[in-house]
TrEMBL record:
Entry protein name: Cadherin domain-containing protein
Domain Cadherin intervals: 38-139, 151-245, 246-350
Source organism phylogeny: Eukaryota, Metazoa, Chordata, Craniata, Vertebrata
Segments traversing the membrane: none
Keyword Transmembrane helix in annotation: yes
Chief localisation class: membrane
Keywords: Calcium, Cell adhesion, Membrane, Repeat, Transmembrane, Transmembrane helix
UniProt cross-references to PANTHER family, sorted A to Z: DESMOGLEIN FAMILY MEMBER (PTHR24025), NEURAL-CADHERIN (PTHR24025:SF23)
InterPro entries in the record: Cadherin-domain_protein (IPR050971), Cadherin-like_dom (IPR002126), Cadherin-like_sf (IPR015919), Cadherin_CS (IPR020894), RNaseH_sf (IPR036397), Tc1-like_DDE_dom (IPR038717)
Organism: Ranitomeya imitator (mimic poison frog)
Localisation: Membrane
Length: 441
């Protein structure tokens, strides 16, 4: 109690009022204070379509002091408080902007009452928005697309399910479905689940595509809201025709130095079916163990993806499969024969680093003196010449191999090259020949 406090003085006696502060006083002197809330909290429900300026409630606080110390100012606090207006003198709380329950359905605010002396108290204000039917149902898709295989679809078979969501609450959120256009009773819809079922047998030859219109209506009051969507039903033929390649065998000839990425050829297959059943994809199923080739799954174009080497592999036999998009998928196969031609990319190699032969001093020009007996060197000739030093010191040259058909030339496997073969003679050994090589491409 403060000394000489005039609070509620009667007949010269002082009476004191003890106020519970709920732990929200700003200072340590909290035993007696002139402000008292009349309510612990306020709560109110507002329609979400309330106009700006609509009165919601009025807060009130009392102060036992007089004059300026008893003058109370009200202020509003909390998230979303900017959507409301609180009269600082009367405590009247009104809307200040449009509200939307679908964005925020409740506001947790507080009002602070402050007197002229700086003392204050606070009270909670809970505002709940009441839903109005201001949102029509929204379909999850528009249009819906459905595929039906007529050969194996029986009447009463569920075809698809539509779904519409209403952002409102309660009965305003409940949705009922109906078909505005049912293709003359060809389809039906469950008004609660939105499941669309087939009612009559389908005949693709008669009609391949059906377009339905579905409506979703809420149960709002006083007015109901609705929306519509389209459903496109495609009737497809069953997958009973496999793809057929244009050719059973494809043939290509490639040089071994062909660049990586080069297009080799294109395979092509067709199907007598339509739509998904006629969508062909291609793949290599065998013969590509070395990973030299790749095929475009859509176009069927065959590419080189690794360098080729005639000496490593001169032929490739690929098996290509064409598969349609049906269920179950059907397929066909074709073969691709690829011949790799040789190019001159290897220098000749002798079977040994040096050759030695003994030649009689009476050897005649063109006589065979040495044979390369390596079985690998049997396909083509290596041309050159021999130089012989005669006893008179003159160098004489003759063509190697000799032109005479009864003499055996040196034969090499790696192609027809220009080789320089030199022979040296010594006077002491009577034309002892040593065969040396100097070969280049």
């Amino acid at each position: 109690m403060r000394k000489n406090d005039r609070a509620l003085k009667t007949d010269g006696l002082y009476e004191t009022t003890l106020v519970m502060n709920n732990g929200r006083w700003p200072g340590p002197d909290l035993v007696i204070d002139p402000i008292d809330d009349r309510m612990d909290s306020y709560s109110e429900t507002i329609s979400e379509d309330a106009l700006s300026g609509k009165l919601i409630l009025q807060v009130s606080a009392s102060d036992a002091d007089i004059r300026s110390n008893a003058e109370i100012i009200y202020t509003l606090h909390g998230p979303g408080s900017e959507k409301f207006h609180l009269n600082p003198f009367t405590g009247e709380l009104k809307t200040s902007s449009l509200l939307d329950r679908e964005i925020q359905e409740a506001y947790h605010l507080s009002v602070k009452a402050t007197d002229g002396g700086g003392h204050f108290c606070e009270v909670n204000v809970e505002l709940t928005l009441e839903d109005v039917n201001d949102n029509a149902p929204e379909f999850s898709a528009d249009p819906y697309t459905v595929t039906v295989f007529f050969e194996n679809t029986e009447p009463k078979t569920p075809v698809t399910r539509v779904q519409a969501i209403d952002a409102d609450a309660g009965l305003n959120q409940k949705v009922q479905y109906s078909l505005v256009s049912s293709a003359e009773g060809q389809f039906s819809i469950d008004e609660v689940s939105g499941i669309i079922s087939l009612e009559k047998p389908l005949d693709r030859e008669t009609q391949a595509i059906y377009t339905l219109t579905v409506r979703a209506t809420d149960h709002g009051l006083p007015r109901k809201l609705s929306s519509v969507a389209s459903i496109v039903v495609s009737v497809l033929d069953i997958n009973d025709n496999p793809p057929v390649f244009e050719h059973r065998e494809y043939i290509a000839t490639l040089p071994e130095d062909i660049e990586v990425g080069t297009e080799v050829l294109q395979v092509y297959a067709t199907s007598r079916d339509i739509e998904a059943n006629a969508e062909i994809s291609y793949q290599i199923i065998s013969g590509n163990e070395h990973g030299k080739f790749s095929i475009n799954q859509v176009t069927g174009i065959l590419f080189i993806i690794e360098s080729l080497d005639h000496e490593a592999s001169a032929e490739y036999y690929l098996t290509v499969e064409a598969t349609d998009g049906g269920t179950p998928p059907l397929s066909d196969v074709a073969t691709i024969s690829i011949n790799i031609t040789d190019i001159n990319d290897n220098s000749p190699v002798f079977s040994q680093s040096s050759y030695t032969a003994v030649v009689g001093e009476d050897a005649v020009s063109g006589q065979s003196i040495l044979m390369d007996n390596d079985p690998k060197h049997t396909s083509r000739q290596c041309k050159g010449y021999l130089t012989k030093k005669e006893s008179d010191g003159v160098l004489r040259q003759m063509t190697w191999p000799p032109q005479s058909p009864d003499l055996n030339p040196i034969e090499m496997v790696w192609g027809e090259l220009d080789c320089r073969v030199k022979a040296k003679g010594t006077t002491s050994a009577k034309h002892l020949w040593e065969l040396l090589q100097d070969c280049s491409r």
